[in-house]
Amino acid sequence: MGDVHKFRKPPNGRRRSSQSRQPYRRGPKRRRWTRGQSILVVIGLLLGASLGLKLIGETGFASEEATFQCGSIRVIDGDTFDCGSKRIRLSGIDAPELPGHCRQGRQCTPGDPYAATQNLQNLVAAGSVRCRKTDTDRYGRTVARCTSKGVDLSCGQLSAGQLRHVRLRCNGHILSIARLWYVPSRLPASLEASLQQTGTPFGKVVAPMHLDRKSAGSSSAWLPKGGVPTAKTPPQILFSQRAIMSRADGLPIAYVVEDYQRGLLGLGMRSRIS
Hints:
By secondary structure, the protein is α+β, with helices and mostly antiparallel strands. It has two domains: 63-161, CATH 2.40.50.90; 162-274, Chorismate lyase-like (Chorismate lyase), CATH 3.40.1410.10. 33% of the residues lie in helices and 29% in strands. The protein contains seven helices and twelve strands. The chain has helices at 2-8, 17-59, 113-125, 153-161, 189-197, 202-205, 269-273; strands at residues 67-70, 73-75, 80-83, 86-90, 129-136, 142-148, 151-152, 163-170, 173-182, 212-220, 237-246, 252-261. Strands 1, 2, 3, 4, 5, 6 and 7 form a seven-stranded mixed β-sheet that branches. Strand 11 and strand 12 form a beta hairpin. The longest helix is centred in the N-terminal third of the chain and has 43 residues, at 17-59. The chain is globular, with a radius of gyration of 30 Å. 18% of the residues are buried.
């Protein structure tokens, strides 16, 4: 009976529980290893997905939500229009503002706002408009690259007004916004074609020309020369730089205005100032 008692006890007993559970000791180890590997796999999948989204966006195979066609269109100005219920801001350009639309303290794009608006109206009237969302601006507008009858609307506006608009970002912060005007006839035809047909930045396209850049002035909205901060909270535009870019023979080619943004200071700057 004693042997029978010992035979029946191990399933619930402690003396042989270690032997009965021995096969399962490796189980938790395998589960811990699997969780660690799973984390790495998930991270890898997320990174792969992000890369995939970038490739999709760049190669034009965007999702249905990111790519859309406009039925009814109402042009607001030279770089903004309503696509049904969506307000679209054309990517890569900054057109002259209509009277009364340039906020105080902002250096708005010079030029004829009515001509820019009319040119955009002509472009969208040429055919159906299809857009690909690239961003959302701080006003809630959809920033997008749009085409009409195969013509990129941003490039079409550039061809008419020769203006370019670039935002420099870092970690989600806009560091500077640059606006540039240039004279197409003073560029080699191949470089002008590259500017019109691609989204390559102006500086990279004209780099082989080794343009000379000279300051045309600057202004500060926050730290007056020799003064102290004018506000505890820095304004959106801290200071602006203007410059003229010329060829080696001294002939001016472009005029650029760079507005340096509050994002330069970082998120912790307010607490130091207050």
